[in-house]
Amino acid sequence: MLRRVNSWHYFRAMAKQDDKLKKVISHAKEYGFVFPSSEIYDGLSAAYDYGQLGVELKNNIKSYWWDSMVKMHENIVGLDASIFMHPTTWKASGHVDAFNDPLIDNKDSKKRYRADVLIEDFVEKIRMKIQKDVDKAAKRFGDAFDEAEFVSTNGNVVRRQKQIDEILARFKKAMDDEDLADVKKLIEDLEIADPDTGSRNWTDVRQFNLMFKTELGAVSGDAGIIYLRPETAQGIFVNYLNVQKSGRMKLPFGIAQIGKAFRNEIIARQFIFRMREFEQMEMQFFIKPGTQGEWYDYWKNQRIKWHKALGMGEDNYRFHDHIKLAHYADAASDVEFNFPMGFRELEGIHSRTDFDLVSHEEHSGKKLRYFDPETNDSYVPYVVETSIGLDRMFLAVMSSAYTEETLEDGSERILMNIHPALAPVKAAVLPLMKKDGLPEKAREIIDNLKTDFNVFYEEKDAIGRRYRRQDAIGTPFCITVDHQTLEDQTVTIRHRDSMEQDRVAIADVHQIISEKVSLRNLLLAAQ
Ligand code: GAP
């Protein structure tokens, strides 16, 4: 079913979204959230460094995820497996043979593309033409317009839709048959040109494995080849029995892990959305075979609650249930978030059956069975996994928090309304002046807060400018120390979003901050 979108509005909305992503990227750099990697050498494509505020935000996102998994579920425990694993791991998981993208080079421009993306972009252009026809007709017929009837009877639309169906069917067949010559032929038949140069001088299509290879120690040749892990999940699978036995875990139970993963993406773009080195937060939940349907629904529900508790807008999330499933899955769904580029995958929830454990049993020759004390029998558990990219979550938080506001007096501010529990700095303590004992008093307050919160001291510039800087990094509270503080032990506390200020006793400040920034409320809301 086609969406009814007015194209002009659609393109304007897209341009605005692009604009927003650019603003978020430049804000992230200006304030020390994210820097391009090795920037003094002009950077390295698709690699980024997290700066002084970025690392705090990232750690807070990790804590929220970790606590919601490991602290809030008594049957989930953590793990920190190594990045390097025995190479057979990746044979067993299917990554050596099947973790590929079809790649094509343009001989003139020397640019490299994903063949599937070139074809999908071509199809998207035809879809846009259909959309244009639909919009025109909707305008012409007004309320009497019946879109379903129009798209099934209008000659142009039917012809274009047939073309799309034929292209996609041919592409699918070519991929299923591993007929890469026909993928190239399809690109040629459709006269697809290099989007940058217009050249149609293409190489053959070949499969490109996304795993990074390196060599172990002094061993040379194939025997020494080792991979940087493309997902953290396999570290959990190979340790499943270690954890189950040493922790005396009973099914159902989960193992959670946060760690780096590496994929040699052919096209890595859109800032930290698609990188070659990134971090995943994954949890594998081991269950009795036959119960996967109920656990899959349970984890879909849990994960969407976790996201929505952050208050980043109910409408900014949607599920995308997979129709075409990976070889190991019997159900899969993505949580999509409305990024500045539109709705994109943020997290995956996959019912992975017993594929991985059975395959590791076969390749290792070791039994990975669970002895069920209730039924007195042994079996390989099924697995439901939740897998979220930490960097994508970071981008979701940054882009939804970035707000440009015009205030009542006509001045403007940039506000990062990051959830207080995730905010990198919880409070700034600001002496109104650099004299009369105000800085010393401010330091005293800091000393009382710094064991529990990340706090910031600043005495430079007018107080208004200092407030603006804290708004721009998302600090929920500014505590101002003035002459009255010295007389009656009170300070003003300014709230980031409302900009309201209250006079409160210094003795109450810790409690006020704690109530707002603690993960407790967030964890309870996400349950
Ligand atoms: N173990 C399952 C797995 O790895 P996936 O859908 O390939 O599944 C899970 O990846 C999540 O990892 C994605 O939803 C996304 O958030 C993140 N992710 C995947 N590739 C990424 C990349 N190149 N850059 C940043 N994040 C990525």
Describe what is shown at a glance.
This protein has about 525 residues and is of the alpha+beta class. The protein is built from 17 helices and 23 strands. The radius of gyration is 27 Å and the shape is globular.
What does this structure look like?
With 527 residues, this protein is of the alpha+beta class. Among the domains are: 218 residues, BirA Bifunctional Protein, domain 2 (2-Layer Sandwich); 119 residues, Anticodon-binding domain (Rossmann fold, 3-Layer(aba) Sandwich), CATH 3.40.50.800. 42% of the residues lie in helices and 23% in strands. It has a seven-stranded mixed beta sheet, with helices on both faces. Helix 2 crosses helix 12. The protein is globular. The N terminus is likely disordered. Bound molecules: glycyl-adenosine-5'-phosphate.
CATH superfamily of the domain at 32-80 and 232-400: Bira Bifunctional Protein, Domain 2
Ligand set: glycyl-adenosine-5'-phosphate
CA gyration radius, whole angstroms = 27 Å
Tell me the distance between the termini.
Answer: 35 Å
Strand percentage? 15-25%
Q: CATH topology of the domain at 32-80 and 232-400, what is it called?
A: BirA Bifunctional Protein, domain 2
Structural class: alpha+beta
How many strands, which pairing sense, and closed or not: the largest β-sheet? 7 strands, mixed
**What is the global morphology?**
globular
CATH architecture of the domain at 32-80 and 232-400: 2-Layer Sandwich
Stretches where pLDDT is under 50 for at least 5 consecutive residues are 1-12
